[in-house]
């Protein structure tokens, strides 16, 4: 009963928070450059001057309240029984209540969804987004694409372009209608992810409620996947469904769903080698001879690779796209932020190097560090794959480690990339310190990005305040049970046992 009563606070507080975010998004989010809802309603003043100030206040108040509601929900789960049905129901109610106000919100924290529409329109109009930038196809959608990306090709797979083409064929150049369809798809992907996380956690002996709390109710996930409508939502949802199939020993179905996710974004491929380990463990035992185990491994790996290529090839053919995305996988080097280790280290060493040679500007160490990081990433991925092979739970931890290695050493890293890591982090039991670090860093990343998509990562005062807030909230979350709970536990421990039956 106590849990149900305390659930009222995070559910209602989070719903109020996302309602504020939704209202503020129309003036402080990734707002339209031309037209849009505000223009049609005659409320343009909300996007500039004092109106924009009000909108930013509402959005930031909503973000702060959402973080608070998330921590309250986590505290409610951790202070009772994380594996109880009540705890899982609490997090599910939170998700429904928190997502509902975001359904009609404008894009926040990124303008990428406008690029998605533009790339779909390019394929529709006969252009190749893998070799041509958005500027090749002038029109109303181009006006909404960030200036940084108007002459940039896309690294996303053929399914991404096929979805965009389908939306723009249905809605034409109506940007508002296109955004609504992308919002529906992002919520469907998020729903698949939220469905898969508790099932994975339950099958691997972890807490479904805790896994759902850190992996779906997390503000990073809600704001960037639902609010920002990034295609990670669909990709992570498909990978989650595939991993559920793998834990139920349906490896062909698992590889199929993950291969579909790969055709959306190549990041999903990091999970495939670990599915091979899971299948190998199912079809061999410790008593199996080494030659037979090697033969089984090669057979499973070859069949998995063949199925993956077949699925991606079929989607490429059906979408009338090309394989040009393989050359673009490395992403665009324009993005510079300290979430990527090469950029962080380059920023640290540049001033020191300039003391000795004025030609060693930021791009010089950055180029070297990005090359070195690619090597470190490759070695780290192989090490993670080899070390986490002993069981299904270990394979799941290996996937989390592989994602962590990839995003740490990648040349370009953005906050929504971590959706892949967060969704898988707690489905296998993890130590309490790992949960604490994941919580604290999630709060820091949530507070580091503004509604328009700009970040404060190079603002020392802002980041210091964010880190202190994250430390305080995480410390409160992870501290021992409250006095009432401890007293109840002590009372139960000292209560006399009933007399044994005669």
Short description:
With 502 residues, the chain is mainly α. The protein has 21 helices and no strands.
Describe the structure.
By secondary structure, the protein is mainly α. 66% of the residues lie in helices and 0% in strands. The chain has helices at 2-6, 8-28, 37-41, 49-78, 85-99, 112-124, 158-171, 175-203, 208-215, 219-227, 232-247, 251-264, 272-283, 290-318, 341-354, 363-387, 392-409, 419-425, 432-448, 460-478, 483-494. Helix 6 (112-124) crosses helix 7 and helix 16 runs antiparallel to helix 17 (392-409). The longest helix is centred in the N-terminal third of the chain and has 30 residues, at 49-78.
Question: How helix-rich are the residues, as a percent range?
Answer: 55-70%
What amount of the residues lies in strands?
Answer: under 5%
The main pleated sheet reads as:
none
Question: Low-confidence segments, ≥5 residues, pLDDT <50?
Answer: 1-7, 481-493, 497-502
Counting DSSP E segments of at least 2 residues, the number of strands comes to 0
Mean pLDDT across the residues is 87
Total of DSSP H or I helical runs spanning 4+ residues: 21
How far apart the termini lie comes to 35 Å
Q: Whole-number radius of gyration?
A: 24 Å
Structural class: mainly alpha
Write down the overall geometry. Answer: globular
Secondary-structure element pattern, one letter each: HHHHHHHHHHHHHHHHHHHHH
């Amino acid at each position: 009963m106590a849990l149900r009563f305390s659930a009222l606070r995070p559910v209602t507080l989070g719903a109020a928070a996302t309602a504020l975010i939704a209202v503020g998004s129309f003036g402080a989010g990734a707002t339209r450059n031309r037209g849009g809802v505000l223009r049609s309603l005659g409320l343009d003043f909300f996007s500039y001057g004092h109106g924009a100030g009000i909108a930013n206040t509402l959005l930031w108040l909503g973000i702060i309240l959402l973080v608070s509601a998330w921590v309250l929900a986590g505290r409610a789960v951790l202070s009772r029984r994380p594996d109880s049905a009540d705890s899982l129901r609490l997090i599910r109610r939170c998700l429904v209540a928190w997502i509902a106000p975001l359904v009609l919100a404008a894009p926040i924290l990124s303008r990428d969804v406008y690029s998605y529409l533009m790339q779909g329109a390019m394929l529709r109009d006969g252009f190749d987004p893998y070799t041509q930038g958005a500027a090749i196809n002038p029109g109303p959608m181009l006006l909404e694409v960030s200036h940084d990306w108007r002459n940039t090709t896309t690294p996303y797979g053929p399914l991404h372009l096929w979805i965009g083409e389908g939306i723009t064929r249905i809605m034409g150049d109506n940007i508002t209608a296109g955004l609504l369809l992308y919002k529906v798809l992002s919520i469907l992907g998020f729903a698949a992810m939220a469905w898969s996380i508790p099932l994975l956690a339950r099958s691997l002996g972890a807490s479904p409620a805790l896994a759902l709390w850190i992996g779906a109710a997390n503000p990073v996930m809600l704001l960037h996947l639902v609010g920002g409508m990034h295609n990670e939502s669909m990709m992570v949802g498909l990978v989650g469904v595939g991993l559920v199939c793998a834990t139920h020993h349906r490896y062909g179905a698992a590889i199929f769903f993950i291969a579909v996710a790969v055709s959306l974004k190549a990041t999903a491929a990091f999970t495939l080698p670990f599915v091979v380990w899971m299948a190998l463990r199912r079809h061999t035992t410790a008593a199996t001879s080494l030659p037979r185990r090697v033969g089984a491994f090669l057979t499973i790996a070859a069949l998995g690779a063949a199925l993956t290529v077949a699925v991606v090839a079929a989607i490429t053919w059906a979408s009338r796209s090309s394989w040009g995305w393989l050359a673009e996988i490395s992403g665009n080097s324009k993005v510079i932020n300290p979430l990527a280790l090469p950029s962080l280290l380059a920023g640290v060493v540049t001033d020191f190097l300039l003391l000795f040679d004025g030609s060693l500007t930021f791009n010089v160490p950055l180029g070297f560090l990005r090359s070195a990081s690619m090597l470190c990433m490759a070695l780290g991925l192989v090490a993670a794959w080899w070390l986490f092979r002993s069981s299904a739970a270990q394979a799941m931890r290996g996937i989390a480690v592989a994602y962590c290695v990839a995003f740490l050493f990648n040349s370009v890293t953005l906050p929504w990339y971590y959706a892949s890591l967060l969704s898988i982090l707690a489905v296998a039991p993890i130590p309490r310190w790992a949960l604490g670090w994941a919580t604290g860093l999630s709060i820091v990343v949530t507070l580091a990005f503004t509604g328009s998509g700009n970040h404060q990562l190079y603002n020392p005062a802002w980041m210091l305040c964010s880190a202190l807030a994250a430390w305080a909230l995480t410390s409160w979350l992870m501290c021992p049970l409250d006095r009432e709970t401890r007293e109840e536990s002590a009372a139960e421990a000292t209560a006399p046992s009933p007399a044994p039956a005669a």
